[in-house]
Design brief:
Layout: H1 13-22, H2 31-44, E1 49-52, H3 55-65, E2 73-77, H4 83-89, E3 94-98, H5 109-115, E4 120-126, H6 135-145, E5 148-152, E6 160-161, E7 164-165, E8 172-176, E9 189-193, H7 199-206, H8 212-217, H9 236-246, H10 249-272, E10 293-295, H11 299-311, H12 338-346, E11 347-349, H13 358-372
Parallel strand pairs: 2-3, 2-4, 4-5, 5-8
Antiparallel strand pairs: 1-9, 6-7, 8-9, 10-11
Length: 374
Amino acid sequence: MIPYNKPFLTGNEFKYIEIAIKKGKISGNGYFTHLCQEFFLKRYEFPKCLLTTSCTDALEMSAILADVKVGDEVIVPSFTFTSSANAFILRGAKIVFADSGELHPNITAKEIGRLITKQTKAILIVHYAGVACEMDEIVKICKENEIILIEDCAHSIDSYYNGKPLGSFGTFSAFSFHETKNINAGEGGMLVINDERFFQRAEIIWEKGTNRVSFLRGDVNKYEWIDVGSSFLPSELTSAFLFAQLEKIEVIQNKRIQIYYQYYDNLEHLHNVGSICLPYIFDYASNNAHIFYFICKNKMERDDFINFMNSKGIKTIFHYLPLHKSPFYSKFVSLTLPNAEFFSDCLVRLPLFYELTNEQIDFISKTVFEFYKV
Ligand SMILES: *Cc1c(COP(=O)(O)O)cnc(C)c1O
């Protein structure tokens, strides 16, 4: 069976974990945590980064930092992972679900404009498959309405909007290093803080509500309980693993992009004859090859396709079940968001991981043709 994902090891993971252990400090905020954070500061010029144990954690930190409270509204795309909404539900906010655009699963500026009210405190956007949202328009809306922008960058490492890295637009941005993402640490994440007014509070929330980070830097002579917070730091074992991955980001990205375009070239004919619809990438967006997906005509065809591929030993998957239709949310609100529902019904993802061989990609592509009998 060809799996849909296989976490890739660059080869230095064990070595760096051993170094972390030998250093005698394996809790968080140590040598490798700093190396990873510096990597992001340098490569993407993010002003402040804090590693977290997951993207989910980074989103929860964002919700605390944004001071989201009971009665506040937060606009979130329906076509996303639960964590994007859950972070704000935990603060008692009301989630206002947004539809996807027609061409691409991303939220649109137009949709955001439709949903804004006086109660809108924050907007969370997801750059689906690493393809940027309409950042000029969205940033403008947030500025004009004094709304906090949060980027869920779980898909969007090393991806750009008109040359500017994703993760540098929001007041806060959350990255994921879950094993299904381009760069992985098993479980892991990072919060980027782009507004210096939040730097200090972010460190406090990160360290269980204490000013321990300031204390370790020597800014204060004891550390105390200052604010709310939780345990958001990953251990040095995770950071050591992550650093081994980050060092090889170019190699990993080049390989994923090559795989993506091999699929694209192989399947383009099916797109041209109207059997499937290949991913749409806006002119302003880069492609970080996080996901290779295409769109089927309807749910029945998509489900048949997944079964067919399974029978040939190829694991393909779909996502997301739209959050506005989830058992949790639909108890409270009944909504129809046609584009999100369309992508949920019709989108399918092909295997995409570093070790996928050219022969496997061609075999998978050939099997797609077999299904469509073209
Ligand atoms: C994977 C993912 C998350 C959650 O990431 P974790 O690191 O597993 O917490 C959040 N949002 C989106 C869009 C994701 O794809």
